[in-house]
Amino acid sequence: MDVKAEGTVETASLGSADIMRILAALPHRYPFLMVDKIIDIVGDKRAVGIKNVSANEPHFQGHFPDNPVMPGVLILEGMAQTAGAVCLFELAAGGPPSLVYFMTIDKAKFRRPVVPGDVLEYHMTQMSKRRNMWWFRGEAKVDGQLVAEAEVGAMIAQGAKK
To answer: Class assignment of domain 2-157?
Structure first.
């Protein structure tokens, strides 16, 4: 654990998660998996999910095909998947596999379009946790520029099958 200058203790960094670790934690698969890797994981407190946006993704065929734009709801889903995976990584040592159920979206705002070729970053920070409920604040960024933001809540179902 790292001790901050003020004397408070911060959760130890878990580093990063590649696609195989994400697939082991989440039930989502192509074409609905919206995160390719997760970096800068600090316990269940914060992390950054990465999504490489490709022109080959099926939603671009029907969502403004002449001017492809990633649907905002999929950006929110990527935020939720990043937060959910981080929660599951933290709980993994505690027993049987769990599922995360997306429960709430609040204060969602979209700032600019996300297009093929962008590298989308989901910056997720835990706001609170109570029993099996978790709330995160997320900011989606491309090249350091804010493209979307929201607060998301989820419920962890302990011992559920994936």
So the answer is: alpha beta
**pLDDT tens digits for 14-67?**
689 999 999 999 989 999 999 999 999 998 899 999 999 999 999 999 888 899
Where do the domains of the chain lie? 2-157
143-158 residue pLDDT tens: 999 999 999 999 988 6
Tell me the whole-structure pTM to 2 decimals. 0.88
Positions marked catalytic? 63
The DSSP annotation for the chain comes to -EEPTTS-EEPPEEEEE-HHHHHHH----TTS---SEEEEEETTTEEEEEEE--TTSGGGGTSSTTS----HHHHHHHHHHHHHHHHHHHHGGGSS--EEEEEEEEEEEE-S---TT-EEEEEEEEEEEETTEEEEEEEEEETTEEEEEEEEEEEEETT---
